[in-house]
Write a structure and sequence with these properties.
70% of the residues lie in helices and 0% in strands. It starts with 5 loop residues before the first helix and ends with a helix. 19% of the residues are buried. The chain has 7 helices and no strands. The chain is elongated, with a radius of gyration of 19 Å. It is mostly helical.
């Protein structure tokens, strides 16, 4: 079981314990859609990096998965050297892409806001 990706370990643990997704929602307040996304490794479908990290940690803790395993995967995925993540047998492919994409989108939005502010400032100063 230790050679499996974290999402598969969590799913297998839930099935072994015969815990329903509804029970998980009632006990730890992780919506069922996020439980399924975690179990299926659909990291890119999370609305943000914060949602992904928070729900993953909470769900893994509830399933009694070693916290250091999840922390290491998240930490490795956030580093600049992402090649290590692909080789880590406990981590998952795709998480580092999600984290990178979230950062890229944030930078693009910040750049767009700066351009809009500059445009407003320039057009308000120049005579018509």
């Amino acid at each position: 079981m230790k050679n499996m990706p974290v999402n598969e370990i969590i799913k297998q643990r839930r099935l072994e314990k015969n815990i329903s997704v509804e029970t998980i929602f009632k006990e730890i307040h992780v919506p069922s859609k996020f439980v399924y996304m975690i179990e299926n490794g659909e990291w890119d479908k999370f609305p943000s990096e914060v949602h992904l990290k928070g729900f993953l940690k909470l769900y893994a803790e509830y399933m009694e998965i070693e916290p250091s395993l999840v922390e290491r995967c998240i930490k490795d995925s956030s580093r600049n050297g992402r090649d290590e993540v692909q080789n880590d047998r406990f981590c998952w492919k795709g998480l580092h892409k999600t984290l990178t994409t979230a950062k890229s989108v944030s930078l693009i939005l910040l750049f767009a806001v700066i351009l809009i502010i500059l445009y407003i400032l320039i057009t308000s100063v120049l005579p018509e």
